[in-house]
Amino acid sequence: MNTEPLAKCQRFLAALAHMRKLNMQAVAADKHQVTVMLPVQEALQNHQFKTYMHGGVLTTLVDTASSMSTLVALDEYELCPTLDLRIDHMSTPQLSQPLYAQAECYRITRSVLFTRATVYQASLDQPVAYAIATFMRPETGTTDSAFKALIDGTAAGLP
Amino acid sequence: MAQLREIVAHAHQSGDYQPVIEIIPYAKIIGVCCERFGEEMIFRLPKNPDNIGNPTLPAIHGGVIASFMELTAAFELTLQLDQPALAKIIDFSVDYMRAGRDRDTFAICTIERQGRRVGNCSIIAWQDKRSEPIASARAHFLLDSLTALE
Prior knowledge:
The complex is a heterodimer of chains A (about 160) and B (about 150).
Chain A: H1 5-15, H2 17-22, E1 25-29, E2 33-38, H3 57-73, E3 82-89, E4 99-108, E5 112-120, E6 127-136, H4 145-152
Antiparallel strand pairs in A: 1-2, 2-4, 3-6, 4-5, 5-6
Chain B: H1 2-14, H2 18-21, H3 25-30, E1 33-37, E2 40-45, E3 52-54, E4 59-60, H4 62-80, E5 88-96, E6 105-114, E7 118-126, E8 133-142, H5 145-149
Antiparallel strand pairs in B: 1-2, 2-6, 3-4, 5-8, 6-7, 7-8
């Protein structure tokens, strides 16, 4: 069974339509944390109004990175819905540079997963935003088995 | 920002808010639209296969729902300000209550307080019934962000 964290993250991103649309990339992952990148793209630019930056899309990036930190923290894929998410915006990101989110699942209990994330561009010491989130673990056997196999890399017959 | 004022004024006149929404590229990507009912603006996120974040239910990506709510607040503020400006977000907090199914989602923002510098918003999102929200959120926006950004 292929449980290599980065490959697992990449399979996860590839499986979700919205992630493919934004070309979201997993750039680093181990058991403890993941880093997800949102590349610079023309579709997210408005050259007319240079004052407004990543309205909304930063939230999608943070949600994705936080949920992927639970993916690598758990041995096997579980479909964990988000309970809540809070983001503090500390500075305005530059549209000309990719946006990174590094997330960590710092506590796993029987029912709940706790995560924290930092959004940055040039370096982690210059955060654009901080976020914390909680996820609910599903009851055993409720995760779709075909999708689980796809993410865990155990789906032999699937494309 | 004279241009923004023009776009907002024109939208209020014509009732077509799409040009305002298209100011923010991500709002256009996920497909946000908006309609005015008297004093109330209701924002709509039409069913869109590209917004799926859970293919097994299928359900809308949680980040897309949160972004839609954040954008709802940002547009509501932009449209309600005496001097239209693009408010800058300070913080955002969302509670998810039900899965966002693959269908149309609606959101409405209440400006709880609008001070000189900060706007305090609460947002709810629903699909079937407004009394059964799929998520609720709070956000603070910096209103003097225009000068702060320059």
